[in-house]
Design a protein that fits this description.
This protein is an all-alpha fold and 291 residues long. The protein is built from eleven helices and no strands. Helix 9 runs antiparallel to helix 10. The two termini are 45 Å apart.
Length: 291
């Protein structure tokens, strides 16, 4: 088990033993009443399998979605908790073999396309291989072998045309009044606006209105529930949109979208890892272009 997993189990055990010591000290004090101990203190320490189970489920889900590199990370985490779990070891081995097969197939297809003077198609295949493993020397060398100015449309979206989504949608907005004198910062006005945006599927605008409502009148009606559900939906939508852009080789736009995920949820590990992977690919492409 990893140091982190052992530390977690040790802390749980320490907490349980500490509670036991407190109970013993109280019961031994002269004239002390019998302590009332919550049942939760008697809960058993989670096993290694219980700690690893959610990571195994996540790994299988990611693999089904085609997010193979993220699935590898999830299997590795599961094995850190339960290193002797043979099904997890076999699953990780098969997944790595699948990645190797797909990289090999992309490279073969790319070289065939290049031999047939289809440089743009070859580039797409080599990029797909690099996306599966940004450290693949074979994919990097294949990209360097491409003509410096392949014919056809560019596969990378220019930075100047990439849509920026870095602005925080929950940023405070100045108070305003409508022409008819109605205060747009009134809770009922903000709530009605948020409902209208939700009905029209304008999630970003709805989130802004609900964020302002939370500042003006915390606890207004079901606003807290609405903003929590909308937050989860926006995070998922933005992450998946980044994946779509990445698959379409609009790498810079994908990075921007994943950064907008981190603005909503700074602890989103998949978005952070996706940005690191995409930036590594851009660096490889920059080296290939210079050569």
């Amino acid at each position: 088990m990893s140091r982190r997993g052992l530390l977690g189990l040790a802390l749980l055990a320490l907490a349980a033993s500490g509670c036991a010591s407190i109970r013993s000290a109280i019961s031994s004090a002269p004239g002390a009443p019998a302590p009332s101990v919550p049942r939760v203190l008697n809960a058993s320490v989670p096993t290694a399998d219980q700690l690893a189970a959610p990571h195994r489920a996540r790994a299988a889900q990611l693999e089904d979605q085609g997010q193979l590199r993220q699935a590898v990370d999830a299997w590795i985490t599961a094995l850190a908790f339960a290193p002797d779990h043979q099904p997890s070891r076999r699953a990780l081995k098969h997944l790595r073999e699948r990645i190797d097969r797909e990289i090999t197939e992309h490279l073969r297809s790319g070289w065939r396309d290049l031999a047939d003077d289809r440089a743009v198609a070859a580039r797409r295949q080599f990029m797909a291989a690099l996306a599966l493993d940004p450290d693949s020397h074979a994919a990097q060398e294949a990209l360097r072998a491409l003509p410096t100015a392949p014919t056809g449309p560019p596969v990378l979206e220019p930075k100047a045309t990439a849509v920026s989504v870095r602005s925080n949608i929950a940023a405070p907005e100045p108070s305003a009044r409508r022409r008819d004198g109605e205060d747009t910062e009134k809770p009922e006005v903000l709530y009605a606006a948020a409902k209208a945006h939700l009905a029209a599927k304008r999630d970003d605008e709805a989130y802004r209105a609900l964020a302002r409502l939370a500042r003006v009148s915390p606890g207004y009606k079901d606003a807290a529930v609405l903003i929590r559900e909308l937050h989860l939906r926006l995070v998922q939508q933005r992450y998946q949109e980044g994946v779509r852009l990445f698959r379409e080789e609009l790498i810079e736009a994908a990075i921007e979208k994943w950064r907008s995920v981190l603005e909503l949820e700074p602890g989103h590990d998949n978005a952070r890892r996706s940005i690191e992977q995409a930036e590594k690919i851009l660096r490889t492409l920059a080296v290939q272009t210079r050569h």
